[in-house]
Write a structure and sequence with these properties.
single chain; 5 helices; two-stranded antiparallel sheet; alpha+beta; 7 strands; five-stranded mixed beta sheet
C-alpha cells in the first residue's frame, strides 16, 4: 500500500511538472517569437524601437534560461542525482552571498532587506546549494512583498540546529494552502500580495529550496507571521 501511494504521489508530481512546462515556458517563448517576427517583417524598423525589442528579447531569453536551469536542478533532486561536496560553512557567509545577489531586485521593487545575526552557526553543507536555498527564499520574499515593505533575514542556533528565518510582508497565506507552498508550480490564492515585478520564478524556487534543504538532512517550513510569512530552515550544525 505504501509503495502504491508513493507511485501515485510521484505521478502527480510529474503531471504538475508537465503542466508547469507547458504553461510557464510557453509564455517567454511566445514573446520572443512575436518580437522576432516583428523585427523580421519590418513592422519595427526605427533604431530606437529595434534596440528596445532586442533588449526585451534578451530579457525574455535570460528569464527562459533561468527557468530551464531551475527545471534541470529540480529534476536532479527528484531523480536522486544530486551530489553534494560537504564542508564546514559559516551560515552568515552563505546569507551574505545570497543577499548580495538580490540587492538589485530589491532596489527595483523598493523593498528593504534587513539581516540580523543572533549567533554565528557553522553548518555542514555544500556552499553553492545552500546559497541557492537562501537566494530562492529571499527572491520569493521580495517578489511577494509590496513596495516600501521589508524582508527580514535572521540566523541563530536552537539546540543542535542552525536556524534561518526569512520574513516577508506578503499579507499571509490561507491556512489550507500553507502545506502546498513547496509544491511544484504552486502560486496560491489572490489573498497573497500579487506579483508586480514581472520576473516570476515559475513556481519552482520553493520546491528546489525544499529539496536542497532535505538533501542536507535539514527541514524547511512556513507559517504566517506578522504582516506576512516566515520561512524557517533548520540545518544540522557541523561537529567540532
Amino acid at each position: 500500500m505504501w509503495e502504491r501511494d508513493r507511485e501515485r504521489a510521484a505521478e502527480a508530481a510529474r503531471r504538475e511538472l508537465v503542466a508547469w512546462i507547458s504553461h510557464d515556458l510557453r509564455s517567454p517563448l511566445a514573446g520572443i517569437r512575436a518580437m522576432a517576427e516583428a523585427l523580421a517583417d519590418g513592422v519595427v524598423a526605427q533604431p530606437g524601437e529595434v534596440a528596445d525589442y532586442a533588449h526585451r528579447i534578451s530579457g525574455e531569453a535570460t528569464r527562459l534560461s533561468g527557468m530551464v536551469d531551475d527545471l534541470f536542478e529540480l529534476s536532479r533532486i527528484t531523480a536522486g542525482g544530486l551530489r553534494l561536496t560537504m564542508s564546514a560553512i559559516p551560515l552568515a557567509d552563505v546569507v551574505g552571498d545570497a543577499l548580495e545577489s538580490q540587492t538589485a531586485v530589491a532596489q527595483r521593487k523598493r523593498v528593504r532587506v534587513a539581516a540580523k545575526d543572533s549567533a554565528e552557526p557553522v553548518v555542514l553543507g555544500s556552499d553553492p546549494e545552500l546559497t541557492r536555498v537562501v537566494r530562492n527564499l529571499v527572491s520569493n520574499a521580495i517578489r511577494h512583498t509590496p513596495p516600501d515593505g521589508t524582508v527580514a533575514v535572521s540566523i541563530g542556533v536552537d539546540g543542535d540546529s542552525a536556524l534561518l528565518h526569512v520574513d516577508d510582508a506578503c499579507g499571509g497565506i490561507p491556512p489550507d494552502e500553507l502545506e502546498r507552498v513547496f509544491d511544484v508550480a504552486f502560486r496560491g490564492s489572490a489573498a497573497r500580495t500579487p506579483e508586480r515585478s514581472g520576473d516570476a520564478g515559475g513556481g519552482l524556487g520553493l520546491a528546489i529550496a525544499k529539496g536542497l534543504v532535505e538533501a542536507h538532512h535539514g527541514r524547511i517550513g512556513v507559517r504566517n507571521h506578522g504582516p506576512g510569512c516566515r520561512f524557517e530552515v533548520r540545518l544540522p550544525l557541523a561537529t567540532s
